[in-house]
Amino acid sequence: xxxxxxxxxxxxxxxxxxxxxxxxxxxxxxxxxxxxxxxxxxxxxxxxxxxxxxxxxxxxxxxxxxxxxxxxxxxxxxxxxxxxxxxxxxxxxxxxxxxxxxxxxxxxxxxxxxxxxxxxxxxxxxxxxxxxxxxxxxxxxxxxxxxxxxxxxxxxxxxxxxxxxxxxxxxxxxxxxxxxxxxxxxxxxxxxxxxxxxxxxxxxxxxxxxxxxxxxxxxxxxxxxxxxxxxxxxxxxxxxxxxxxxxxxxxxxxxxxxxxxxxxxxxxxxxxxxxxxxxxxxxxxxxxxxxxxxxxxxxxxxxxxxx
Length: 307
Description:
CATH topology: TIM Barrel
CATH architecture: Alpha-Beta Barrel
Strand order of the largest sheet: 2-1-9-8-7-6-5-4-3
Largest sheet: 9 strands, parallel
């Protein structure tokens, strides 16, 4: 049975989905995905109505071998007008590689947890920010938009609880440096709705909520509930990965990102608009799952296939 169309909404009820499957999803999948399939995945996603598709990551192939073909992928995709195709860059070298193939939006990342940063990139939070400060400066001069990621906002696999004050401090620094949007990530998926809403509220007290996004992993099955709690606090940008792909290569036990299909179904059921064709998105999720040799991680994708 096909779900009914979303209810009419006010302009403030448009939610932008940032599709992170091609980057954050694939980077932690064990099955190697061919360059041709990555290109087809992004082209398929471009046809669903998504406005933001994170295409790849210009990090060292030594650290993320799944994305060693970043330049080839970005060069081959059919970039459609009106769709942003950001890429992740860890430093100036990554920025140079990205700009060489025509990238117009990049993302930088750090964590709210000192322990996670040390294990992840062998640097303190302050050191990690200093590493990409030149990227922000050059991007400003080049007219390139920069998105900032803050991971471990609701818990860390190494230090446990992460003080909300640390999340606020890091998010505020990234915004002050020029990141137009800050994505707040529950990297290991331990958050619950009250904690998620409290964290968002604390950050929104320092930054415009319009500059904030949420990024939940579904390790404990709380991602959709957390998203709903944050929507109630005014957030209107949600990161998600088609088919629930991926996870975090540096966080043991962290399951995949929340599935984009499930998020879109939730939002439409709440009377919110996304501009996304749910059937086309679910079909793309099942296509990707087949390439990965498993079932789709989206419950909505499974339900639509069964119907």
